[in-house]
């Protein structure tokens, strides 16, 4: 029981360490869904473990102890009270964080719906007549691609094709859903934040690889990225947003080498790492049920 | 040989995708474009009739206009919906970095040293 409940926490640390390594070595189309699934499984398991630890407090409830004494059973205390209380507090924090994440997600969706308003229903590309160079995919049915006129006029014809192919890949492979899932997982378990960052980076790499395959030229794809980044960078410095995670540079560097292999063994290992916490949590559930039913019967 | 290959690629693209590319080409320039110019911009291997069909569809949707004042047969993008979208986007950007930053943007910010490296890449990369 003890290892079963704390195991998922340790394993989520391990996943957070492995995530970024997998992101560099494995083909993004394989690494992204595998890491996201592992993160969701792990977050579910750690949250459930907190529920179990908090529920173990029930075992200390006076009626349960009295009944157990009357029945002549030894009173077992599987979880120190402090930890039970700590788990309850942590559970509260998780609930608040999840609530916030869901609210942020909803507000983003609302904004996106407004951007599509007034556009013909069956059109993929939405152009915003704006001097701010910007491009992103809008998931939904149908999925849309929003690009500003400033971004379009900065790119050469072949580079525009790369941009459209990249955004289209986000829609085709439902990258939005993948990132949402891993965002919620990281909200439930903050230890998984590096995995979230890895998946967010991987979906960009995945879309880059798809675009490169479609235009049939990795270097041209890299140049399109560089041009778009320089165009957007100039405008963004003006609004004093100096943030950079070197993501674009890393993506361009990756396009200058051969695509990373589909390492199925590494993918399987990550999936196993994600399944293990779930198994442990399930086992701990059985233990707790046995404990409580033993005490209550 | 290369011609048929790129033609094959062009034909595999769906009508919706070609619409996007034609619309993107029209927005990328200030001046109206004739179907022949669009054909050259989007993909030389694209059939002229296909370009016409796509333009007609975009026109029916109200996304492009025929350039009455300028050259005959030239098209330019319709600005109304695009301006509304831009207003909604700016409003979202002004309200805070959250909604748009949460999206998968094509590119994110650059540091000065990264910017230098990218400039060198574009200058040295050639065509």
UniProtKB/TrEMBL annotation, chain A:
Q: Domain of life here?
A: Bacteria
Q: Which cofactors does this protein require?
A: Zn(2+)
Keywords, A to Z, come to: Hydrolase, Membrane, Metal-binding, Metalloprotease, Protease, Transmembrane, Transmembrane helix, Zinc
Query: Which molecular-function annotations from GO does this UniProt entry contain?
Result: metal ion binding; metalloendopeptidase activity
Q: How is the cofactor bound?
A: Binds 1 zinc ion per subunit.
Database matches in Pfam families = Peptidase_M48
Residue ranges occupied by any Peptidase M48 domain in the UniProt entry: 117-185
- Presence of the UniProt keyword Kinase in the record: no
**Transmembrane regions:** 6-23, 35-59, 79-99, 263-282
Kindly state a single biological-process term from the GO annotations of this entry: proteolysis
Under InterPro entries, the record lists: Beta-lactam_resp_regulator, Peptidase_M48
What family does the Swiss-Prot or TrEMBL record give for this protein? Belongs to the peptidase M48 family.
PANTHER family linked to this entry: POSSIBLE SENSOR-TRANSDUCER PROTEIN BLAR, SLR0241 PROTEIN
According to UniProt, the name of this protein is Peptidase M48
Upper lineage ranks? Bacteria, Bacillati, Actinomycetota, Actinomycetes, Kitasatosporales
UniProtKB/TrEMBL annotation, chain B:
Keyword Transcription listed? The answer is: yes
Keyword annotations of the record: DNA-binding, Transcription, Transcription regulation
Q: Which GO terms describe its biological process?
A: negative regulation of DNA-templated transcription
Q: Which GO terms describe its molecular function?
A: DNA binding
Q: Pfam families from the xrefs?
A: Penicillinase_R
> Could you name the domain of life of the organism this protein comes from?
Bacteria
Output the InterPro entries linked to this UniProt entry: BlaI_family (IPR005650), WH-like_DNA-bd_sf (IPR036388), WH_DNA-bd_sf (IPR036390)
Query: Which family does the record claim for this protein?
Result: Belongs to the BlaI transcriptional regulatory family.
- Full protein name: CopY family transcriptional regulator
Q: Which organism is it from?
A: Streptomyces monashensis
């Amino acid at each position: 029981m003890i290892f079963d409940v704390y195991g998922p926490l340790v394993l989520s640390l391990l996943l957070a360490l492995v995530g970024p390594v997998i992101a560099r070595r494995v083909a993004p189309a394989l690494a992204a869904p595998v890491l996201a699934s592992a993160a969701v499984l792990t977050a579910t398991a750690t949250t459930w473990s907190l529920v179990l630890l908090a529920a173990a407090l029930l075992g200390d409830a006076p009626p349960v102890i009295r009944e157990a004494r009357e029945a002549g059973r030894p009173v077992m205390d599987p979880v120190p009270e402090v930890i039970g209380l700590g788990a309850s507090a942590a559970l509260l924090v998780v609930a608040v964080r999840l609530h916030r994440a869901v609210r942020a997600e909803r507000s983003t969706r609302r904004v996106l719906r407004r951007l599509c308003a007034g556009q013909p229903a069956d059109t993929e590309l939405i152009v915003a007549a704006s001097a701010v160079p910007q491009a992103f995919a809008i998931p939904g049915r149908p999925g849309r691609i929003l690009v500003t006129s400033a971004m379009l006029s900065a790119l050469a014809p072949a580079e525009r094709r790369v941009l459209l192919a990249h955004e289209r890949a986000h829609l085709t492979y439902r990258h939005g859903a993948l990132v949402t899932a891993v965002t919620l997982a990281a909200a439930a378990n903050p230890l998984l934040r590096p995995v979230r960052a890895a998946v967010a980076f991987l979906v960009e790499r995945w879309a880059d690889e798809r675009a490169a395959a479609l235009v049939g030229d990795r270097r041209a794809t890299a140049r399109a990225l560089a041009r778009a980044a320089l165009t957007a960078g100039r405008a963004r410095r003006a609004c004093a947003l100096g943030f950079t995670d070197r993501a674009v540079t890393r993506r361009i560097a990756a396009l200058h080498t051969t695509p990373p292999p589909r390492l199925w063994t590494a993918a399987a290992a990550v999936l196993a790492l994600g399944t293990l916490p779930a198994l442990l949590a399930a086992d701990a559930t059985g233990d707790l049920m046995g404990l409580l039913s033993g005490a209550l019967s | 040989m290369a011609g048929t290959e790129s033609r094959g690629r062009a034909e595999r693209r769906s009508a919706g995708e070609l619409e996007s590319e034609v619309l993107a080409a029209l927005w990328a320039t200030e001046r109206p474009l004739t179907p022949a110019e669009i054909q050259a911009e989007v993909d030389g291997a694209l059939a002229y009739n296909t370009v016409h069909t796509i333009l007609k569809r975009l026109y029916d949707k109200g996304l492009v206009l025929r350039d009455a004042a300028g050259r005959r047969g030239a098209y330019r993008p319709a600005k109304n919906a695009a301006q509304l979208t831009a207003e909604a986007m700016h409003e979202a950007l002004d309200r805070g970095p959250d909604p748009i930053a949460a999206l998968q943007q094509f590119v994110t910010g650059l540091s000065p040293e990264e910017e230098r490296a990218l400039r060198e890449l574009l200058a040295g990369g050639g065509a």
